[in-house]
Amino acid sequence: MTYQRIYDVVRRIPRGHVATYGQVATLAGLAGHARQVGYALHALPDGTGVPWHRVVNASGRISVRAVPGAELVQQQLLEREGVRLDARGRVPLARVRWRAGLRARE
Predict the structure, then answer these.
(1) Distances (CA, A) of 41 to 15, 25, 46, 95
(2) I want to staple 40 with a disulfide (CB 3.0 to 4.6 A). Which of 6, 20, 27, 52 is the partner?
(3) pLDDT of residue 105 exceeding 50
(4) Which residues are CB-contacts of 26 (< 8 A; sequence separation ≥ 6)?
């Protein structure tokens, strides 16, 4: 199942690091389908063990959620792992981006 492949990749993101939706898609064999990653993460049940909070958009920002305040939850979870957002609301991708399987265009 496609979602399971996505979840397997997200589970590999180490604590204190992040990956982009596009990076996760590529590592799951779904290059060019970053939105599919978003759909899969949205479908996760509450209390899941999949560290969904470690996935950010290509600019290092937390993506807007349908539920008010959900972005703050993700920010707090990242901060607990030592990942701080800058004044522009972005994580420092150069420092905390997971390097597994990266290619030049990701």
Answers:
(1) 17, 12, 11, 24
(2) 6
(3) no
(4) 101, 103, 106
